[in-house]
Amino acid sequence: MDAEMLGSKDDKTYTRRISQVGNSLSVSIPKDLATMLNLNKGDEIEIYYDKERGEIVMKRANRIPKEVRPEVVMAMNRAISKYDEALRNLKYR
């Protein structure tokens, strides 16, 4: 199953119980779904209610300003991936 298939009749359906965390309510995301969507601890998502469809919608938050070109973001991500260990080690110097 890939991200494009979400919403098709062949999708696996998950049932989750809502739990209380402090003053908020919480719902977990199944590990295989999080892996498929490349979601990790600390990632941000947007949640809203689609009144027309009567559905709660969750999607990855876009934290990149609209005026930043996609190729700049891709280059930055490549540099961070390539030099991740070196960048992390700088904080111990």
TrEMBL record:
Residues 19-66 form the SpoVT-AbrB domain. Coiled coil: none annotated. InterPro entries: Doc_partner (IPR013432), SpoVT-AbrB_dom (IPR007159), SpoVT-AbrB_sf (IPR037914). Pfam families: MazE_antitoxin. One of its GO terms (molecular function) is DNA binding. NCBIfam families: doc_partner (TIGR02609). This is Addiction module antidote protein. It comes from Geobacillus thermopakistaniensis (strain MAS1).
